[in-house]
Amino acid sequence: MKRYTVNTAIQARDEFIRAWKQHAPEVSFGDMTVDQFAESTSAMLDVRDRIADARSIVKGLIRERDHVDAEFRKRMQQVVRFIQGADAFGEDSALYRALGYVPKSERSSGLTRPGSAKPDTPAPGETGGNPPAGETGTTDAA
Fold it and tell me: Residue 10 contacts by C-beta under 8 Å, 6 or more apart in sequence?
């Protein structure tokens, strides 16, 4: 017998019952009528319904988690702002650092000056300079 996926198992059950009802509706197999068979195999539908319900619950819980996480981040930022503005703590305090932030006194300015490199300094990835006289800079593989 072939193996059924979730969707094809339901489809196979329906086709099985339909064929039995169409070709031998009054015949019992294994002391079971077609209606008894349908009733005895309805548990597969019930389980799938419960799985669908559980998936819906999980989706709702994921949305709820995302909402409370966003609220947490918002509240955390509020507290950090209060710490930054507190006279006893501020942006250079040990508490601020312990919370994972870089104290103001340790921050670099972030200022860069493009074009400040000397002309003789090779760019990253270049060997730099001119080849000695008589050399072209290429190698011949012999």
Answer: 44, 45, 48
pTM over 0.70: no
CA gap 100, 83 in Å, rounded: 13
Would you state the structure tokens that stand for residue 5, as one six-digit string? 């996926």
Please state, in angstroms and rounded to a whole number, the distance separating the CA atoms of residues 34 and 16. Answer: 9
3-state secondary structure 62-115: HHHHHHHHHHHHHHHHHHHHHHHHCCCCCCCCHHHHHCCCCCHHHCCCCCCCCC
Taking CA atoms, 127 is separated from 120, 122, 130, in Å, by 11, 7, 9
Q: By C-alpha distance, which of 33, 1, 30 is closest to 17?
A: 33
pLDDT of residue 121: 62
**Residues contacting 28, CB < 8 A, separation 6+:** none
How much is the pLDDT for 12? 92
Structure letter (DSSP) for residue 101: P
CA angle, corner 122, sides to 125 and 108, nearest 5? 85
3-state DSSP call for residue 15?
helix
